[in-house]
Design goal:
Blueprint: H1 2-9, E1 12-13, E2 16-17, H2 20-27, E3 31-36, H3 43-49, E4 53-57, H4 63-73, H5 80-92
Antiparallel strand pairs: 1-2, 3-4
GO biological process, one term: malonyl-CoA catabolic process
GO molecular function: malonyl-CoA decarboxylase activity
Domain Malonyl-CoA decarboxylase C-terminal: 1-58
Length: 95
């Protein structure tokens, strides 16, 4: 889960999220909200994402400012759960 959080939050292409689905939702003003372990245990889900799924949450009053921040300064808005996983990854990573 820590690696997944880092992939979605920290891995970038030209400053934007490397994952195309993440990039789509973040451009539209969502918050990287929650990573769910074993949410998709189908053979395809296991093969594609080790069974993990992510939730993006849209707070209507914040979508415009989140989108502007992402597009302008490449800042990703994320929940405490995701930020905690990212922090744990950074502390334990040898990258």
């Amino acid at each position: 889960m820590r690696l997944c959080a880092w992939y979605l939050y920290g891995e970038k292409h030209r400053g934007y999220a490397l994952n195309p689905v993440a990039n789509f939702h973040l451009q539209n003003g969502s918050v990287l909200w929650r990573i769910n372990w074993l949410a998709d245990t189908s053979p395809r889900g296991i093969a594609a994402s080790c069974g993990m799924m992510v939730n993006y949450r849209y707070f209507l009053e914040e979508t415009a400012s989140n989108s502007a921040a992402y597009l302008g300064t490449k800042q990703i808005k994320a929940s405490e759960q995701v930020l905690s996983l990212v922090s744990q990854f950074q502390q334990n990573s040898k990258l």
